[in-house]
Amino acid sequence: MTRHVVFRTDEIPDGEQRLAVVEGRTICVFNQGGEFFALLDRCPHEGGSLCRGARIGLVQSKEPGIYEYSRRGEMVKCPWHAWEFDIRTGQSWVDPKRIRVKTYEANVEAGEDLVKGPYVAETFQVSVETDYVVIEL
Hints:
Shape: elongated
Number of helices: 0
Helix content: under 10%
Strand content: 35-45%
Structural class: mainly beta
C-alpha cells in the first residue's frame, strides 16, 4: 500500500470535506471532530459526487412516532438521489447488505514523521571543475 500526503489537517475544518485526486481516483476526505475518513467520491447508484452531498446524522426509530437523532455529521447524502452513506464505513442506508462506497484508510501523521512528502524538489549533482560550476541533468 502506497501512502499519499493529501492535505494538512488545518485545510479541512471540522465538519467539512475536501476532494483529493490520488492515482486517478477522486477521493473525498472528511473531518469529523478531528477524525479523518476517506470515501471514493462516487455514489454507487448513479455516480453523484459524495463530496458535494450534505452531512447529516442518523435518524432511527424503535417504534412509531418515536425518533432518535444521533451521529450528527457522520452520514453523507448523495446530492443527486439522496442515498445516504456512513462516512466511517461506506455502508449504505438504502441497502446496507449490498451497497457500500469504497473506503480508504485516512491517518494523521506529524510532518516530521513523514520521510518524504510530495514537496520534494528535483536535485542535481553539482561539482566544481577548474573554476566552473557544473550541474548534471
